[in-house]
Design goal:
The protein contains 20 helices and no strands. The chain has helices at about 10-15, 30-35, 45-55, 55-60, 65, 75, 85-100, 105-110, 110-135, 145, 150-180, 190-195, 195-205, 215-240, 245, 255-280, 285-290, 295-315, 320-345, 350-370. Bound molecules: iron/sulfur cluster (SF4) (2 copies). One iron/sulfur cluster binds near residues 25, 27, 28 and 45.
């Protein structure tokens, strides 16, 4: 197999945050340090080598950048202060932009004007929709479902969910095609995909490799990440599946499951996003020492989404109709742009790409173990 050399690759990935890429002199300390690196998936040195030498095709076929969970150990041990952990992070941003066929992810990662402009545009669309299409404004009591009829909000959610799903799935298909175009054109048989489905489900649900990523500090970070994911999983289910049950004008008692689930989701979202933001401000841990603009944006938007959701709840319980309606619109004008921008194009997408990379790696390994007569070989036409 020939390898195309792209002399601009290293410079291009530097734009995504790999500032110290060319300091590396390939001593290999980082790979020896990394507990997640293995014989079949060695990193981070190999990825740094691809970047420095411009081996773009090999990089695009690599799952390794997604197998790194950014514990930061390699950067602590690097004798050249080449920050291999951040290079892996920057490579994930670059790969996210390459999986995205629309080209938007690249623009959003490389331009703050595009990032904030896109968020502002979606927010403006949300506000305009409410301005022109809201229901009657009841002022003698809070009637949120009259101002924003739940059936219309639900239809809007489903349309948005369908568009985001198509975008994310098409990016996932592109990721699959790029990664599985390796191995000399051989493609793993269906049996390998089926037998490793459990790997996909396990890692999608738990991100459990993170737990193994050195030292107790990463175990607690893994648990917090799980809690954070549970918080916005509940938020997703409330918005896309159970909206009629969640958005009611009836005031349930404090112990009602609708309120308890909402309190749990907002509490973990607020707690952990504040921890992330404070960690990035203090810059003590290796994972927080370098922050790309997009590293700030996602936790900040999540924090504001949770905060504005609480504000809607408090104003509703306090019997303040106009303030409730205005805060509700503001809440959606924060939450919806976050979902539209972050799910298919931004930081959120790693929740899909990471377990899929673990899965594709396991599928490739499983295919190598199968007897050759079971392996369907598809040689690429090109
Ligand atoms: S990144 Fe640092 S530790 Fe890793 S190979 Fe390069 S110089 Fe050595
Ligand atoms: S940040 Fe941690 S998981 Fe990632 S390459 Fe470095 S040592 Fe390995």
């Amino acid at each position: 197999m020939t390898t195309t050399v792209d002399a601009t690759l290293g410079k291009d990935v530097k734009k995504f945050g790999a500032d110290d890429l060319f300091k590396c002199f390939h001593c290999g300390t980082c790979t020896a340090t990394c507990v997640l690196s293995s014989d079949s998936a060695q990193f981070p040195r190999r990825i740094i080598r691809y970047l420095q030498l411009g081996m773009r095709d090999k990089l695009l076929r690599s799952v390794e950048p997604w197998l790194c969970y950014y514990c930061g150990e390699c950067s602590i041990r690097c004798p050249r202060q080449a920050n291999p952990a951040e290079t892996m992070m920057a490579t994930r941003r670059y790969l996210t932009s390459r999986y995205d066929w629309t080209g938007l992810a690249r623009r959003l990662y490389l331009s703050e004007a595009w990032e904030f402009g896109a968020l502002a545009f979606v927010a403006a669309v949300v506000v305009a929709l409410f301005y022109f299409l809201h229901g009657p404004i009841v002022t003698d009591r809070v009637a949120l479902n009259t101002f924003a009829p739940v059936v219309w909000v639900e239809i809007g959610d489903w349309i948005m969910g369908a568009i985001l799903s198509v975008l994310l799935l098409s990016n996932v298909a592109r990721m699959h095609r790029l990664i599985m175009s390796g191995d000399g054109g051989k493609r793993p048989p269906l049996a390998a995909y089926l037998s490793e489905l459990k790997t996909l489900l396990l890692h999608a649900a738990t991100q459990k490799r993170w737990r193994d990523c050195n030292e107790s500090v990463n175990r607690s970070r893994w648990i917090k990440h799980l809690l954070l994911v549970s918080g916005y999983a509940i938020m997703f289910i409330m918005v896309f599946v159970l909206l009629r049950w969640f958005q009611t004008d009836e005031v349930h008692p404090f112990y009602h499951p609708q309120r308890l689930l909402g309190y749990y989701a907002t509490a973990v979202l607020l707690w952990i996003t504040v921890e992330i933001i404070v960690g990035r401000l203090r810059r003590v841990e290796p994972i927080h020492q370098f922050s790309h603009p997009t590293d700030w944006l996602f936790p900040t938007l999540l924090f504001l989404t949770a905060l504005s959701g609480i504000a809607v709840h408090v104003f509703r319980l306090s019997g303040m109709p106009l303030t409730t309606y205005a805060t509700y619109v503001a809440h959606l004008a924060i939450a919806l742009p976050m979902l539209v921008i972050e799910v298919p194009f931004g930081k959120w997408s790693h929740l899909a790409y990471r377990p899929l990379a673990v899965y594709f790696h396991a599928v490739r390994e499983r295919a190598r173990e199968l007897p050759q007569e079971q392996v369907a070989i598809e040689v690429q036409a090109a």
